[in-house]
User: Fold MFS transporter from Streptomyces cinnabarinus.
Amino acid sequence: MPLALLALAVVAFGIGTTEFATMGLLPQIADGIDVSVPQAGNIVSAYALGVVVGAPVLTGIGARIPHKRLLLLLSGLFVIGNVASALAPNFGLLFAARFLAGLPHGALFGVGAVVASKLVAPDRAATAVSRMFLGLTVANIIGVPAGTALGQQFGWRSAYVAVAVIGVLALVALAAFVPHQPRGAQAGVRHELRAMGNKQVFIGLATAVVGFGGFFAFYSYLVPMLTNITGLSDSSTTLVLALYGVGMTLGTLVAGPLTDRALRPTLYGGLALLSAALVLFWFTVHSTVPALITIVVIGAMGALITTPVQILLMAKAKDAPTMAAASNHSAFNLANAGGAWLGGLAISAGWGWSSPVLVGAALGVAGLGLAFMGGRMDRGGEPSEVITSSDAQQEQVTAAQ
Assistant:
């Protein structure tokens, strides 16, 4: 793996750690800033809101900035957001700091995905992008449990300090290992926005929101399902979440090569298998070992969707893929909010703690339907190839002129 991909994976590791470790530290944060746990939970929403807003806005602002310089600027903003989170004296400033920390999230992944795809041959673009995403999945195995333990032992502020240190290390690695990649002659926010108007880009984003909403309908209520139905203790759920991260890592490892070989079949298979695994969990949740095995499978299938959706959006946006790639992470955060909301409605309706998995399965099937719709639109059209070289972009511009 090129060192530049390793640097991008470190960025993803820091992002994954700061996003999910907060959830495990809500009681400590609530005590520290003298608010209730539900009110402290709003800082999770603040981060997600930052992602949704920041992905298109920061990508648009940086549309003419060379990719390496933009990555460094975004990483610097990520460090500042986490330092501000560690220093925030009250709820209002912590809310603002988490929003600030979330702003560069989607843009970092979007720009990073485009950079990663240019580091290798075009037929290995998806594999390169998936290697960057490995940092996010490994964060669920190592970063989140370690950050949570650090925050519980030395105070929640120490977790954000640690993430800021990771951000500084990532910034140094990006500066040292990522090569300069010039933007195309037509680079600019209008060029990116025109690419976003492609119907296939819209359908791809809708597939991410709906299909991945099924993943989050399950994940948002995994801990209460395990404690109330499976009978696991609260202390063991952290290890289960790490096991879930193992599944995500396995799915990410195979997603890249599969997407390089067959993009849409990989997306179809991931959504179909995710829906089937969620239905299976409705039966296995009552027994510990089958439930744990199914959790690993669900984690793998959820990760299997991420890379093909990312590559599909980059392909359909053609020579202006950065905003589409970044907006994918806005879509994932909308999926997070929507899936959690629908799963909560099912529980509130009295359908039981396991009802979110059936909601998730239904959303997965709906996402599969949207993916098939996009596939039908591809028939007779252009193949889903990702433009990965600035030379190819320049050739297209010259041909157009």
